[in-house]
Structure formats: structure tokens, C-alpha cells
Amino acid sequence: MDLLKLVAFDPEDLAVISAHLQDSLLRVGDIVYLPKERRFAIQTRRFDWESATPQRRLTCMHFEHVKAVRVRGIDQTNKDAVLNLLAIAFEEGDPPSGTATLIFADGGAIQVDVECIEMQMKDIGPVWAAESRPVHEDLPQAERL
After folding, report:
1. Based on the number of CB atoms within 10 Å of its own CB, is 91 exposed (0-12), middle (13-18) or buried (19 or more)?
2. What is the pLDDT of residues 100-130, one digit of tens each?
3. Pair 42, 17: CB distance under 8 Å
4. How far apart are CA 11 and CA 29, in angstroms?
5. Which residues contact 35 (CB under 8 A, 6 or more apart)?
6. 99-119 b/e with 16+ CB inside 10 Å = b?
7. pLDDT digits (tens, 9 = 90+) for 51-79
8. Intra-chain end-to-end CA distance of the chain, in Å
9. What is the rounded distance in angstroms from the CA atom of residue 141 to the CA atom of residue 102?
10. Alpha carbons 32 and 40: distance in angstroms, whole number
11. Cα–Cα nearest to 49, from 27, 26, 21, 25
């Protein structure tokens, strides 16, 4: 598979990127907020869901037009701690502004307040074999709706 590069300008685009970033692993030290540039960026080890064999890719993502960032349930002093990104949700504020929430396993979250959605995700290489394919418990039918 070629390197993946995606851009989000609305909640639907962001949902597509969220699906590609599901189960990405990252170190706390790979998270950067640049308030002067109004940018929030992360380097991840993305699980490549489209690959026939389990593999990970080095991937970067960033939000532009960032007004503020809040962190909950993540020890920011432990730069080597590994986080598992489960999803990115978006709650609209006064359009086109809103809050993107990066949801991590074990209850951690990062909220990114943006003036508008402008987010990019890009594989930068390399690619390596993953130990296994992430597994998620099946939700009861009522919770899938």
C-alpha cells in the first residue's frame, strides 16, 4: 500500500481519519502543542487496517487553527508512557468552531479547541510488522445502534 495522506475539513472527514488512526500507539513525548503557531501535532505508530498482514506505519497528524488544548487522565511528565488512540470525536461549537477529542484507552483524553476543522494525517514511513492485530470486544446489538 502507498503512503496514506488524508485531510479533514468537516466532521465526516474527521471520522474517516479517526477510523484510520484507531489503535495507533504513541508516546506522550510525541505530542506537541505549539500555541504561537496555533498547531497541535502527534506522531503515531498507526496500525494499518488495510494491510493483509498486521503492520504499523509511522504517521503524523496535526490540527491547525487551535485555540486551546486540555489533557485529562494522561501523565504528561512521563514522556515514555505509551497511549493507545481509540478514536477522534468532534463536538461542534459556534460553527465552524468546535472541539476535537482524542480518546485513549484507559480513560485518557485530549481536547483540542479549533476555530474550524483543518486536520491532516500523513504516513511518513517506515513500515514494520506488528505483533498482532488489535481486537475489540463485540458490543451488544443495542450498543451498536
Report:
1. exposed
2. 999 999 999 999 999 999 999 999 988 999 9
3. no
4. 27
5. 66
6. bbbbbbeeebebbbbbeebbb
7. 889 999 999 999 999 999 999 999 999 99
8. 32
9. 25
10. 6
11. 21
> Exposed, middle or buried: residue 87 (CB in 10 Å: 0-12, 13-18, 19+)?
middle
Q: Which amino acid, residue 21?
A: L
Q: Cell triple for residue 70?
A: 486540555
Cell (9 digits) for 71: 489533557
Neighbour tally for 67: CB within 10 Å = 13
β partners of residue 42: 31, 61
Residue 68, Cβ neighbours under 10 Å: how many? 13
Q: Global pTM?
A: 0.90
Report which DSSP code applies to 128. E
Total residue count of the chain as it appears in this document: 145
Q: What are the cell numbers at 102?
A: 482524542
Is residue 111 a contact partner of residue 63, using CB atoms and an 8 Å limit? no
Q: Where do we find the cell 485518557?
A: 108
Give the ranges where the chain is alpha helix by DSSP (H): 11-21, 141-144
Q: Where are the chain's structural domains?
A: 5-129
